[in-house]
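Our consortium's second objective concerns turning raw sequence data into structural hypotheses that experimental partners can test. To show how far this objective has progressed, the report includes one record in full. It was chosen at random from the queue rather than selected for favorable results. The single chain below, 439 residues long, was entered without modification.
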Amino acid sequence: MDLAADLADLLTRAGVPGAVVGSVESDGSTDIVVAGERGGGRGRVDEETVFEAASLTKPVFACAVMALVHAGVLDLERPLADYGVAHDVLDDDRADAITARMVLSHTTGFPNWREDEPLRVRWAPGSRWGYAGEGFAYLHRVVEHITGASLEGLLRETVFGPLRMHRSTAVWREALDTRIAVGHDHRGNSCRANRGRAWKAAAGGLYTTGPDYLRFLAHALRHHSSMFEPQVQIDDELAWGLGWGIEDGDGGRCVWQWGNNPGYKNIVIGRPSDGRGVVVFTNGDRGTRVYGDIVHRILPGQHPSLETRRRPRWRLAVAPRPVVLGGGRGTSASHELGLVVQRSWELPDVAPGTPIARIALEPNGNAASFTITALTVLPEWRGQGFGSTLLFGACELLGARAAEAEVEGDVVEFFRASGFTAEPIGGRRFRCRLELDSP
């Protein structure tokens, strides 16, 4: 395999401007491969090119948190409310029980982000998994309160300094502007820059380079084994540790995290048993097509972490609540819900609030089972997972434990990919059904 020769071709075929790939071998040797353009007239990608790490920030922040735990400054089991920093949830005492362990293992019960609605607890903290950047934002405030240091200062003392990550920062600096890879949407247009989101910094605010993050990965795989113990099981192949996702595939156990900001698609994945791993940063919304290929080249075998769209429990836990477009909430009424463009999806020519997908469901005689009578996504938004996001978001909002649909032709493949069983009922028609038992 000659990744240096193939990376440019991978980018061209995927429609992604640029990428940097860092890999570490079992003997500790490392390699960096770069290709493509930064965009915005900033020249070619090189080893000093800065990328938005997005959620690849979370393992770095978790490492800093564990340094505080080892120093006796923070207790993983103590409710964060006991440290004198209030959460943002109103009229729900369940949030008082949230601990640092719950935050790092995504079991707070929070949604990923509240968007424009009040923060709420979706289920009892500690009872089940649900990816939640809001938890990291809460823990961010707590650690700044108890240490008296800024997030940037804490990361510099515990991670950036010791690991010589001298080109990494959690604070946007104007000096980065000439070195940053500009994000691009799925149509190849430059995305609006993500700057000044300080309250989200611990969850996704890291700016870094390929070589810097590779040093972090190599160190973590060899020295952070306590963070790789499963804290909560998602399904038979996926779990979550302390700040890291955990997968059990045919190539052995790996730890991982993907990063998804508008215009950036990144992944880090490694195998603690032998210290091998890879980190990929891309500056395009089609970057998953690039990093999936690279992960399989460097770490051959099955990777459940690359197949999360096919996992019902995963989709149910991470799907946002859609907007109610029409219909009632009674047992005899149909429900019409949709996804609309929000800040996190904003494109220059699409106004926030623009509907992009719609689903209609009817109760099947009880409040826990529904028939899907319509599911559509606008053509320009297809192929990005919005259909399954809406489907599972609607099920979560309505409290559905089962969903079914009668479909015809190739549409059945969408439902199969979303975890539905498909029974032929004549001609090219199928009855699709999905059970959504609680994890």
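The partners drew two points from this record. The chain has a mean pLDDT of 91. Residues 3-62+150-306 form a domain with the Beta-lactamase fold (CATH 3.40.710.10). Both points have been shared with the crystallography group to help prioritize constructs.
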